[in-house]
């Protein structure tokens, strides 16, 4: 039986956060003796910080959201002495996959937690001046497809149509980005560079759209967060790097799915997470 004090963060706008899914989570926790003392419903309620968790003697923070809210919540509790349990509550759940393995259902993750088959880890993050990514960073004009994804999530048909037109135009004509330190890949750059943090460094992949077919394939892959189904090439496994805009414009990025803007030349590096995350996969 689990004797620690657990709090839970949910987000109704995340992919798997329906009322039924949250109730099923509570039922699954109760069956395994994992009690939840308090629920925080973001964004209607503020995310807790380390001081709030410490004052309430919280030992574990369960987060049942998508990668964007996970990023915000984990950043908020930096320096906390407790443990964060990442649960698959979003659309793609890339951080959950990293910690618990591919296609591991929520019930199996909870089984592992209940029997103590967990390990506190501080995985490497990909960092830039606007934030830190535990799941991944996307860099370049191809990030415009995120607006289509949000419109699809909100069932906004007009927004999907407008966003697709704008994303196609931006990906086709927007200022491409290139890796300059170290110099890798095509000098003319890419509409999208993907940075995936791992315990070996940052895996860097460049995505090109040389024709209409490539463009549509890449856009569809982006919408489903299945980037590697689009045409791409491996640029390296790096600890530090610099990416610049081929046109000297500000660089658009997605940090764990959330948009931000960097200067025309941006540095990226790795750093360990600032709070313990519970891993249940043998990869850790």
Summarize the topology.
Blueprint: E1 6-11, H1 19-31, E2 38-42, H2 50-55, E3 60-65, H3 67-76, E4 83-88, H4 94-100, H5 106-114, E5 119-121, E6 124-128, E7 131-133, E8 137-139, H6 146-153, H7 157-173, E9 177-181, E10 183-184, E11 192-198, E12 201-207, H8 212-223, E13 232-238, E14 240-245, E15 251-255, E16 258-262, E17 265-272, E18 276-279
Parallel strand pairs: 1-2, 1-3, 3-4, 4-18
Antiparallel strand pairs: 5-18, 6-7, 6-17, 8-11, 8-15, 9-10, 9-14, 11-12, 12-13, 14-17, 15-16
Low-confidence stretches: none
Architecture of the largest domain, CATH level 2? Sandwich
- Write out the strand line-up for the largest beta sheet, numbering strands in chain order: 2-1-3-4-18-5
Sheet having the most strands: 6 strands, mixed
- Number of H/I helices: 8
The mean pLDDT is 86
Distance between the termini: 24 Å
Spell the H/E element sequence: EHEHEHEHHEEEEHHEEEEHEEEEEE
**Percent range for helical residues?**
25-40%
- Total number of domains: 2
* Global Rg: 19 Å
- Outline: elongated
| Tally of DSSP β-strands | 18
- The secondary-structure class comes to alpha+beta
Under CATH, the topology of the largest domain can be stated as Tumour Suppressor Smad4
Estimate the strand proportion. 25-35%
CATH class of the largest domain: Mainly Beta
């Amino acid at each position: 039986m689990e004797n620690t004090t657990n709090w839970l963060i949910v987000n109704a706008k995340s992919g798997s956060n329906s009322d039924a899914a949250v109730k099923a989570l509570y039922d699954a926790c109760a069956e395994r003796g994992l009690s939840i003392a308090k629920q925080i419903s973001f964004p209607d309620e503020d995310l807790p910080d380390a001081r709030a968790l410490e004052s309430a003697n919280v030992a574990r923070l369960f987060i049942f959201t998508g990668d964007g809210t996970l990023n915000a919540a984990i950043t908020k509790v930096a320096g906390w002495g407790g443990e964060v349990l990442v649960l698959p509550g979003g659309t793609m759940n890339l951080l959950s996959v990293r910690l618990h393995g591919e296609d591991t259902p929520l019930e199996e993750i909870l089984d592992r937690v209940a029997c103590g088959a967990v390990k506190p880890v501080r995985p490497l993050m990909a960092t830039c001046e606007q934030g830190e990514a535990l799941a991944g960073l996307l860099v370049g004009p191809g990030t415009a497809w995120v607006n289509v994804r949000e419109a699809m999530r909100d069932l906004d048909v007009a927004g999907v149509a407008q966003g697709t037109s704008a994303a196609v135009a931006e990906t086709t004509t927007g200022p491409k980005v290139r890796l300059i330190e170290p110099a890798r890949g095509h000098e003319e750059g890419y509409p999208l560079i993907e940075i995936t943090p791992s315990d070996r460094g940052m895996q860097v992949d460049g995505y090109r759209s040389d024709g209409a077919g490539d463009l549509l394939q890449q856009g569809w892959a982006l919408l489903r967060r299945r980037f590697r189904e689009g045409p791409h090439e491996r640029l390296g496994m790096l600890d530090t790097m610099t990416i610049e805009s081929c046109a000297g414009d500000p660089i658009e990025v997605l940090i764990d799915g959330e948009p931000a803007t960097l200067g025309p030349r941006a540095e990226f590096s790795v750093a360990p997470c600032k709070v313990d995350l519970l891993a249940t996969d043998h990869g850790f």
